[in-house]
Design goal:
Pfam families: N6_Mtase. There is one protein chain. The model is unreliable at about 1-15 (pLDDT under 50). The strands form four sheets. A nine-stranded mixed β-sheet has the order 5-4-3-8-9-11-10-12-13. A three-stranded antiparallel β-sheet has the order 14-16-15. The protein has two domains: about 1-290, Rossmann fold; about 305-385, no CATH class. The chain is about 35% helix and about 20% strand. The protein has helices at about 10-15, 20-30, 45-55, 75-85, 130-135, 150-160, 185-195, 250-265, 275-280, 290, 305-310, 315, 320-325, 355-360, 365-380, 380-400; strands spanning about 1-5, 5, 35-40, 65-70, 95, 105, 110, 115-120, 165-175, 195-200, 215-220, 230-235, 270-275, 310-315, 335-340, 345. It has about 400 residues and is α/β, with parallel strands linked by helices.
Length: about 400
């Protein structure tokens, strides 16, 4: 497709990595002028191009990056070479071949190393070459080799081996690598014990073409700053996206929130958590994001007194979750009257859900839904129901008597 006076072969990249995910990943690893950038599964070169775009957006010289990549598919390799040329990148070192089986960026029998490594390898690649990797000439797999039908952590270890001593990498991974057992657990354990993992970021489902499964990002840093040593930041961004008919997307504000949370290494309720490696070890080196940063709401409150006698519990209305995630700044006095210090009740004029919607004005849909839920849950108490049943039984008995039945 055309972009200004040049055109970019983005279709092949979009098939694998949506542009906003690439933008996010590049913003997390923050390439800087003079750096060497490497993508071991380069595709058509979109991630490498985005590193230049990032530099340009942040006042750097995009020409002051050295780009390296390897791509196994011959046709895709050719497109990548042309894409580099069309973006004015004439010195990019893009090579053909199987990165795991035959890495091409070597020097004097050793892997070349880079300042930044970025990739979206094929998920759970089967027949990736475990037998050869067990005797790898480059020593790329110090934590062991993953199963023969799941090459995810082989790519991760290749990327780690391709980082220099101050290097940072970002990689897209399926969630399975975070908790699968056996040899993959041993690899996670080794990476954590060497204090290389800086962050684990969970993305929403439905971002990637052709699959609805959610993905995760791993940020690995060989030179973590002192305040981040022996810690890992978990970010759960699964709920923050724009829903699309066929595919969901990350909005600018979603990307900005993830990047800001990572930059600040901040804890945000129901979104992010800083966890010590000691705690992860206690959890058997499980990196399941929800274990540490859970977005699910707390258990719903069921107030027995309110169910029996009516009224809406103040503690439920004013709970942190209801206030922060649902009601926001909605003024509950529009629909509730204070019955006593512990309970609200619906205003006398409210005799139906329609009246709730009328008095709530322009409240958000989620506010209306919650108010209607309280109506269903508490408006008619068990005491009232018992009275109604007793009244109905009495009425039925009188009808039967009138008809001559005793």
């Amino acid at each position: 497709m055309w972009r200004g006076n040049s055109f970019s072969f983005v279709e092949n990249d979009i098939k694998y990595t949506p542009s906003e995910v690439v933008e996010l990943l590049v913003s997390l690893i923050k390439p800087q002028s003079g750096m060497r950038i490497y993508d071991p599964t380069a595709g058509s070169g979109g991630m490498l191009v985005q590193t230049r775009n990032y530099l340009a957006r942040n006042g750097g010289n995009p020409a002051n990056l050295s780009l390296f990549g390897q791509e196994m598919n011959l046709n895709t390799w050719a497109i990548c070479k042309m894409n580099m040329f069309l973006h004015g990148v004439y010195s990019a070192d893009i090579r053909k071949g199987d990165t795991l089986g035959s890495p091409q960026h070597t020097q004097a029998g050793e892997l070349m190393t880079f300042d930044r490594v970025i990739a979206n390898p094929p998920f759970s690649l089967k027949k990736w070459g475990k037998e050869e990797a067990d005797n790898d000439a480059y020593g790329r797999f110090p934590y062991g080799t993953p199963p023969k039908d799941s090459g995810d952590l082989a790519f991760v270890q290749h990327m780690i081996a391709s980082l220099n001593d101050e290097g940072v990498m970002g990689v897209v991974m399926p969630h399975g690598v975070l908790f699968r057992g056996s040899s993959e657990k041993a690899i996670r354990q080794g990476i954590l014990q060497d204090d290389l993992l800086e962050a684990v970021i969970g993305l929403p489902a439905g971002l990637f073409y052709g699959t609805g499964i959610p993905a995760s990002l791993l940020i690995i840093n060989k030179n973590k700053r002192a305040a981040r040593l022996r810690k890992v930041l978990f970010i759960n961004a699964e709920l923050e996206y724009a829903e699309g008919k066929n595919q969901n997307t990350l909005r600018a504000q979603d990307i900005a929130k993830i990047v800001q949370t990572f930059d600040d290494y901040a804890e945000v309720k129901r979104y992010s958590k800083v966890v010590t490696i000691a705690e992860i070890a206690e959890n058997d080196y499980n990196l399941n994001i929800r274990r540490y940063a859970d977005t699910s709401p707390p258990p719903e409150i069921f107030d027995v007194r309110a169910i029996l006698h009516g009224g809406i519990p103040v503690r439920e209305v004013e709970s942190d979750y209801i206030r922060e995630e649902i009601l926001g700044d909605f003024d509950v006095s529009l629909v509730f009257a204070q019955r006593d210090s512990d309970y609200f009740e619906f205003k006398p004029e409210i005799d139906s859900k329609e009246k709730i919607r009328e008095l709530a004005g322009e409240a958000d849909a989620q506010v209306i839904t919650q108010l209607e839920r309280w109506w269903d849950k508490y408006q008619v108490s068990l005491k009232d129901l018992n009275a109604q049943v007793a009244e109905a039984e009495s009425l039925m008995q009188s009808f039967l008597q009138e008809l001559g039945y005793e």
